């Protein structure tokens, strides 16, 4: 019997079915009978049978997701979801991968200005652009690395996106892992309170005392709350060395609000707002503003209170 490329493909398909392996590429004649523009092929395995249900339950995708670990400098925010991060205001682009490589995806994030988080996942995609004459073509598996500018809370909430249908072809996601840049959280000598996406907006206490002492801005070096504590201490050293000459009370920094300021979703700088009194989450009501067409927002906002003595502001 003459062995053609078609009989060879058929034999490979039988072997794949027998051993539970991913199916071989569809017979070219099947693609030919499903006319339409060919779409970019993926590098991931295609489950057998080639159905959305099999894709969502495919063991190899689960294994890859659970075996992955956060790369240096990043924290894991979710593992093995069946949905990716979404949100056009925070999206920075994507890259097609040849492997489910966390390190490659992290490298793309490092190379992209404003990238704070990345999402890697398997996507069931059609081989042919679905159309009236080819409503449910065979699938290919894309391995996608998407890049985002997000706060941790928004990243978790955003991972809820069903890709939907293209004619009779169901696009689904599996093995979706999310990672976000890690941030130093420990700060000896200070008590930390998390404010999320809002900064303190309470310069005057119940006695009419003006507690705001200015701010320090850091444009580089990542996000580190410890340098806000250092800025607070350095301000005290300076003020103590240069006391008021008009008889007014020496003002010392006992509280600092650290946060990232963003413009149109892109981080601009870390700010350290300094205060003589400690404020709490109830006063964290500043969630940004519009400056013309630019939207200024707040992320990673935390309050740091000096643990030496009592410094709470009266409200």
TrEMBL record:
Q: Which residues form the signal peptide?
A: 1-20
Q: What is the protein's species of origin?
A: Lentithecium fluviatile CBS 122367
Q: What is this protein called?
A: Apple domain-containing protein
Domain of life assignment: Eukaryota
> Which key words tag this protein in UniProt?
Signal
